[in-house]
Amino acid sequence: MKNAFLTVEATEALITSGATLFISGPESLLRRLPRGKWTGATTVYFILEDGGASREDRLFCTHFDEAAAVRTAILSGDELAGLIERRYEHGITCVVVPAFSATLQRYAAEGPRLSGLYNQPVFGWVAGVHLDRVGIDSAKVFDGVTGTISEDGLAALWIALPDTIEADLNIVNLFTAGEGSEFSFADGGFEIADCLIDGTPANLACHIVEQGLDTRLPLVADYAGAMINVSFQTVDADNGKVHFYAPVVPGVTYRQASPVADYASTYAEAANGRSAEGMLSCNCILNYLYAGLEGRSTGGFVGPVTFGEFAYILLNQTLSCLSLQEAPTGGDHAHRS
User: Fold this and answer.
1) Bridge partners of residue 135, in order along the sequence
2) Hey, which of 166, 182, 293, 322 would disulfide with 327, CB 3.0 to 4.6 Å?
3) What digits encode the pLDDT tens for the residues 152-188?
């Protein structure tokens, strides 16, 4: 696996050479690429080795030179089972889905229940647009094999790996649950009105406004041992509704996160000296904004800045990280998560 931040001409040359690529960048450049073994999606924000940047003149390309075979497709919300059915016996699945799309909402709700989802790494991100163009431009995903472009599909890149290679999929969540109130929900979803706050029925939007809660800090809960964030999108106290970037889960207890002192240095410590050359990460646009990551390095964690991340399930305000490495002697197919 190799990462490079390339001109469209250099990317074209890689595709023409037969390389297997996972590509992120502006729509105008993605539309210029020839057909080939690639999957891509829109963003103009990146974390590079010298820091975060908004760029519309380059494409971030991850070259999977380890790929033994490749399949691509764009799946509709009714075809999500195909994500599991079409994968190789030993490999990885890279996915991208447009922000605010119906398919994203379907995957957020139904993806965690797909049979066999957690048996093989599923890594990817939510496509976005320039923040000044939200509501004007639409995020898009691309299937390089067929030339298909979609505003509402899950683009998948299935990669078969040699037995000598295994995948390492991780998340880095800088947030921990704070000491404030406990929140729980009778109904799940992206839009919430009423909930239980410390066991007492209340309207969440009114509570947030009355208490002056900082909605840059997500709700955090323990999902089977992993701390998972649910980030605030909008709070509409007039209509008594809160919109999230990921669905809350009924019966799970959440608390609002504690503040993070220094995002950039904490990410660099979590990278633990690993090279940006062989490790692809995607980091949330909310972290990029709230932590001021433009121009600041996060160590070995490089890749697109996105409107959500996938490490099997949809995540918010989290960094997802994929690397490939030599398997232990005997070709062990284990993966880490």
Assistant:
1) none
2) 166
3) 999 999 999 999 999 999 998 889 999 999 999 998 8
Q: Does residue 195 sit in helix, strand or coil?
A: strand
Residue 321 β-bridge partners: 170, 281
CB neighbours of residue 263 within 10 Å: 19
Give tens-digit pLDDT for 276-326.
667 899 999 999 998 888 998 887 789 999 999 999 999 999 999 999 988
Provide the token pair at 223: 């999902």
Beta-carbon contacts of 270 under 8 Å, excluding residues fewer than 6 positions away, are 172, 299, 301, 319
Are the CB atoms for 42 and 27 separated by under 8 Å?
A: yes
Using CA atoms of 204, 207, 209, 214 in order, give the dihedral in degrees to the nearest 10: -80
Q: Where are the alpha helices (DSSP H) in the chain?
A: 8-16, 27-30, 82-85, 102-110, 204-211, 263-271, 285-290
Do 143 and 70 contact (CB within 8 A), yes or no? no
Task: Please name every residue paired with 228 in a beta bridge, in sequence order, or none if there are none.
Answer: 221
Q: What is the pLDDT of residues 181-237, one digit of tens each?
A: 999 999 889 999 999 999 999 999 999 999 999 999 999 999 878 889 999 999 999
Length of the chain (residues): 337
Residue 268's CB is within 10 A of a number of other CB atoms, namely 17
Quote the Cα angle for 150-124-59, to 5°.
Answer: 70
Predicted model pTM: 0.90
CA atoms of 270 and 299, how far apart (whole Å): 8
Distance from C-alpha of 84 to C-alpha of 49, rounded to nearest angstrom = 33
Q: List the structure tokens of 153.
A: 């599909």
Q: Rounded to 5 degrees, what are φ and ψ at 192?
A: -130, 140
One-letter amino acid identity for 309?
E
Whether the Cβ atoms of residue 254 and residue 221 lie closer than 8 Å to each other? yes
As a whole number of angstroms, the distance between CA 303 and CA 281 comes to: 5
Buried b (16+ CB within 10 A) or exposed e, 44-57: bbbbbeeebbeeee
C-beta separation of 42 from 25 below 8 A: yes
